[in-house]
Design goal:
This protein has 448 residues and is α+β, with helices and mostly antiparallel strands. It has two domains: 248 residues, FAD/NAD(P)-binding domain (3-Layer(bba) Sandwich), CATH 3.50.50.60; 180 residues, no CATH class. The protein is built from 16 helices and 23 strands. The strands form seven sheets. It has a six-stranded antiparallel beta barrel. The protein has a five-stranded parallel sheet with strand order 7-2-1-11-22, with helices on one face. A three-stranded antiparallel sheet has the order 3-6-5. Helix 1 runs parallel beside helix 6 and helix 1 packs parallel to helix 16. The chain starts with a strand and ends with a helix.
Length: 448
């Protein structure tokens, strides 16, 4: 039992689990939370149901981590999804696994996840102080370098500590209190940061036709996202083709797509959203690439030849129909109207053409278009709509075996404050649990 005094900043997923890990090591733990209650972001995850982890094999877990998966090996293998599910079961929160290995509380209430954590922490004697906002981390300069002394709060109080664990989250959903405090602390102490941006976030597009489809969801489509070719970005007169706000950039030309996926997407008043688009957004770095080209495959279950055969069958079934009417057999009514307009622009096929007048070349050209409808991605929506944050405290600053700062002994980081992020499906919360537990155990250890 270490008896060390540990201060955890932030009572979110990573912070509460860090407190648990430190308490298990026998430390005296105080959690400082600037909000009036714990786990505010937990309450809104999974639309209030809280997809708190993913029960896939641990090896498969890392395939869903977008940024710095190797950094997470020690943390995740030390406290994996099975261990997380067992923890919640043991603390009075039965769990279930649904499609895609997504784990939820049986009750479908996110509040039960937070309640289980708070019950466990209460048993362990952890103190949680609400309405307690940290102003800065106190560090002492010594002959051997710097060492953590504690924290100073915005009300002027100072709390001494043998170790401080920063679990303040990223910048996404700022209304929950995630305002980048941990990154500010890190920067003030001279630690390197990776530029931040919204991730798992809806995307804006240059074209206007998606706005006319606002609210329409497509359940089974495929997308392919590529950087806008360098030769387009380098010619100012073609910037409009590349996307609104795109900047000419030098550098390598993308030889392969940055993202390919299959699933559901949604048209919005600003562009595109939905699970498929949120995943794609995590691979788009608009700070480095001014715009991206996305191709929508509206019929991914069919090859081009199969799609052509389907169109021929529809023509034979109604040879005197107008082309636009034929499109209604292939797409939802609203999409069919838009496709009629787009097809005239892209394929030269007028919407009032008689179906039987289409030749083989036109049918092939149209099927090509259906398999690769182009959209220009120009940026992301704000942090207020982002599930997670890309970037944060550079993992080069952190010992992956302990989550401790390499420069300042006694200073630890966990969760979304770090430059790690993953796809949807419970993976980001698993990162919070794993890094939080490792940081807590490491900070509370007598060897630390």
């Amino acid at each position: 039992m270490s008896g060390k005094k540990i201060v955890v900043i932030g009572a979110g997923a990573a912070g509460l689990m860090a407190a648990q890990g430190a308490a298990e090591s026998g430390a005296q733990v105080t959690v400082l939370e600037k909000n009036e209650k714990a786990g505010r972001k937990i309450y809104i995850t999974g639309k209030g149901r809280c997809n708190f982890t993913n029960a896939c094999d641990t090896q498969d877990f890392f395939q869903n981590v977008v940024t710095n998966p190797r950094f997470l090996y020690s943390a995740v293998y030390g406290f994996d999804a099975q261990a997380v599910m067992a923890f919640f079961e043991e603390n009075g929160c039965p769990v279930k696994v649904e499609r895609g290995n997504r784990a939820f509380p049986v009750s479908d209430h996110a509040s039960d996840i937070t309640a289980a954590l708070l019950r466990s922490l209460k048993k362990a004697g952890v103190r949680i102080s609400y309405h307690s906002e940290v102003e800065r981390i106190l560090v002492q300069e010594t002959e051997n370098g710097r060492r953590v002394l504690g924290v100073r709060l915005t009300d002027g109080r100072s709390i001494p500590a043998d170790a401080v664990i920063v679990c303040t989250g990223g910048l996404s959903y700022p209304t929950t209190g995630s305002t980048g405090d941990g990154m500010k602390f890190a920067q003030e102490l001279g630690l390197a940061l990776t530029p931040t941006a919204p991730a798992l976030v809806p995307l804006t597009v240059r074209e206007t036709w998606p706005m006319e489809l606002q609210g329409l969801a497509l359940k089974n489509i495929a997308v392919r996202v590529e950087e806008i070719p360098e030769e387009i970005l380098q010619h100012p007169e073609d910037t409009e083709k590349a996307g609104e706000g795109a900047k000419p950039k030098k550098g390598k030309k993308s030889k392969k797509p940055v993202y390919e996926g299959f699933g559901e997407m949604l048209f919005t008043h600003f562009g595109v959203s939905g699970p498929l688009i949120l995943s794609a957004s995590s691979y788009c770095n608009f700070q480095e690439c001014g715009a991206y080209r996305m191709q929508l495959d509206l019929k991914p279950a069919l090859t081009q030849e199969q799609l052509m055969q389907r169109i021929v069958r529809e023509i034979e079934a109604g040879p005197l129909r107008h082309f636009e009417t034929l499109l209604r057999t292939l797409f939802p009514a609203r999409l069919a109207e838009i496709m009629a307009v787009l097809s005239e622009e892209a394929c030269g096929i007028r919407s009032d053409r008689i179906a039987r007048s289409l030749n083989d070349q036109e049918i092939r050209r149209f099927s090509d278009f259906v398999k690769a409808v182009p959209l220009t991605l120009t940026g992301t929506r704000s942090y207020a709509e982002a599930v997670v944050t890309r970037g944060g405290v550079s993992v080069k600053e952190i010992n992956p075996s302990t989550m401790e700062s390499r420069k300042i002994p006694g200073l630890y980081f966990a969760g979304e404050t770090l430059d790690v992020n993953a796809l949807t499906g419970g993976f980001n919360l698993q990162i919070a649990w794993s890094t939080g537990m490792l940081a807590g155990r490491s900070a509370g250890s007598t060897e630390a």
